[in-house]
Specification:
Blueprint: E1 2-3, H1 5-13, H2 33-37, E2 48-51, H3 58-61, E3 70-74, H4 78-89, H5 92-96, H6 104-112, H7 118-130, H8 149-163, E4 167-169, H9 173-180, E5 185-189, H10 207-215, E6 220-226, H11 229-234, E7 239-251, E8 256-268
Parallel strand pairs: 2-3, 2-5, 3-4, 5-6
Antiparallel strand pairs: 1-7, 6-8, 7-8
Helix pairs in contact: 4-7
């Protein structure tokens, strides 16, 4: 079963440029970010925002960017890191000229490619994200006409404006938190979920290790995590909220869509 990316693409397509996503990513928070941001402390309590496992940066893209604050997007995945670095620098006219229409042979050829030049690298990485099941960048999937890249092309200058002073880093989460932690830092933490490592290129996080890092944190954090007994045990003593949301999945064997609901934890240290 896969997330129905066509459904999410329509949602993204209708967004104002201010909030449009650059690309999709498994576990992305486009549909839940308003509820997540609502849990953030008042603006005057933080001057630095860091998305530790940035992925598609959905929560960052949902913020009203304050030029007087500092913003950091961090991701250990080299391709995801490269997308953010390259989208900051690409010329809008070069992005406009890129053709992202899905093609199975091209998809698998690009998967094996490793371009170094900015435009070629950005094209490869966006193409793999836009034309894969659940934006996992693993298996090819034909997308509908509402591919979110058309929205990004229209909004690239607004996206780049928000990214002008945003710092992009490529560190493991411990180094990232240590680097940016301060009494006025707000972290949003969305780690690979328990027993879902296969969806994150095999990357995993030990919740007990993460909890120990959070216990020593000077700043504030909001964390998304799947509901799992080990998560509850690891973060005992922190504030827990259950976040309920609906989404669609594609039942491949039955060739149909199904709406389902899901609960996740929001964990905070304040």
């Amino acid at each position: 079963m896969f997330l129905n990316c066509f459904f999410l693409s329509i949602y993204i397509y209708r967004m104002p440029c201010k909030y449009v996503s650059v690309f999709g990513r498994i576990g992305g928070k486009v549909k839940t970010r308003e509820k997540i941001i609502a849990r953030f402390p008042p603006d005057d309590e933080w001057d630095t925002f860091c998305e530790v496992f940035a992925g598609s940066g959905a929560v960052f893209r949902g913020l009203d960017i304050d030029p007087n604050k500092k913003y950091i997007l961090n991701d250990l995945n080299d391709d995801i890191y490269a997308i953010w670095v390259d989208i900051k620098k690409v010329k809008p006219e070069d992005l406009q000229a890129m053709n992202f229409v899905g093609d199975r042979e091209k998809f698998y050829a690009l998967k094996e490619d490793n371009p170094k030049k900015l435009n070629q690298r950005l094209y490869r990485n966006l193409y793999l994200s836009y034309n894969s099941y659940a934006n996992q960048r693993v298996s090819y999937a034909q997308k509908g006409s509402k591919n979110p890249v058309s929205r990004l092309k229209k909004c690239i200058e607004a996206v780049q404006d928000d990214l002008k002073k945003t710092i992009i880093t490529n560190q493991d989460y411990i180094a990232c938190i240590k680097r940016w932690d301060s009494p006025t830092t707000l972290f949003y933490i969305d780690p690979p979920y328990m027993e879902k490592e296969h969806l994150y290129d095999g990357m995993s996080v030990n919740p007990y290790e993460l909890a120990e890092v959070c216990k020593k944190m000077k700043g504030k954090f909001v964390m998304s995590y799947n509901i799992h007994p080990e998560v509850k045990k690891a973060f005992e003593g922190f504030a827990f909220t259950k976040l309920k949301f609906s989404y669609q999945i594609y039942l491949k064997e039955e060739d149909r869509q199904k709406t389902t609901t899901k609960n996740e934890y929001l964990i905070q240290n304040y």
